[in-house]
Amino acid sequence: MTDAPRPDDLVSELLHLLNVEQVGEDAFRGRRKVGGIGRVFGGQVIAQALASAERTVAPDREVHSLHAYFLRGGSEDHEIDFTIDRDFDGGSFSNRRVVASQQGTPILNLTASFHKREPGVGHAEGMPQVPQPEDLLSEGELREKYIHLVPENMRDFVLKFRALEVKPVDPAAWAGMKGGAPRLDTWFRAPARLPDDPHIHRAILAYASDYTLLGTCTVPHRLSWMTGEVQGASLDHAIWFHDDFRVDDWLLYSTDSPWAGRARGFNRGRIYTRDGRLVAETAQEGLIRVKPKG
Question: I need a labelling partner for 48 at 20 to 30 A (CA). Which of 65, 148, 163, 185 fits?
Answer without folding.
Answer: 185
